[in-house]
Design brief:
With 119 residues, this protein is mainly beta. It has a single domain, classed as Elongation Factor Tu (Ef-tu), domain 3. 4% of the residues lie in helices and 58% in strands. It has one helix spanning 66-70; strands spanning 10-13, 16-18, 20-27, 31-38, 41-49, 53-59, 75-80, 86-94, 100-101, 106-118.
Length: 119
Amino acid sequence: MANKIAGTTYIKVDGQQFTLAGRITVSTSTVEREGKVGLSGVAGFKESPRVPFIEGDFHTTEDLSLEDLEEITRATVKVELANGKNYILRDAWCTGALEIDGAEGQISVRFEGMAGKEI
């Protein structure tokens, strides 16, 4: 029996559902490790804090406002993936300059937050 691993995905920001255009990336990792090596071989690793994020491409529907996106600073972002996994990002803000791709009718948006986890 085959398992569904990709496909229909939903994203909500403070309960408002966005229309996903096709790409979504979720990272709830809070640390990043980097291997350290010297002339005598591997010494170990360096561990640094990392900001969890959710980012994706959204259709520029009538109810999606750039001004509203730019105002997001303490949101709850929830993603429901086709494989049944759900992720939540708390105290999230919208990052970066927002740019609309008029030819495709979509915008790339990245949310970073204080905490993210699989639910």
